[in-house]
Prior knowledge:
The structure is a single chain. With 144 residues, the chain is an alpha+beta fold. Helix content is 35%, strand content 35%. It contains four helices and six strands; from the N terminus they run ααββαββββα. It has a six-stranded mixed β-sheet. Helix 3 crosses helix 4. The mean pLDDT is 88.
Amino acid sequence: MLSTQTQLNPKIIETLEKWHDVVANRDMATLQAILHPDAVFRSPMAFKGYESAAAVVLVLSHVIEAFSDFTYHRLFAGADGQSVVLEFSAKVGDKTIKGIDMIQFDQDGLITDFEVMVRPYNGLQALGAAMGERLGHLLPAYKS
């Protein structure tokens, strides 16, 4: 998925390869290994990020279960060499969504920030409902 033109740190490329394995195999043990302990997950449904590697693992393990037909299409590398954007599509129930994962890394290639954006609105609503059913009792409610 990465081209030889990409100017990413080799450790980041290695982490991205592991991330794709996490998604393909639903391997949460590997996910934990590629996260910085203070990683933050930024949801399209919440005003504030969820802070800590444990929170990121919790959220992403449930997101993976909520999606079907998940596919990454393109990767865009940031000019800083420490960030990428991964474009994806998936289904949540009968709704088709498009989205991006904006991921930032530290110098060691660990994920420090994972932000998701999703469209269209009815797909975002379906994702929010699915995640609410799975995690609503575990995650604090953030208000704007």
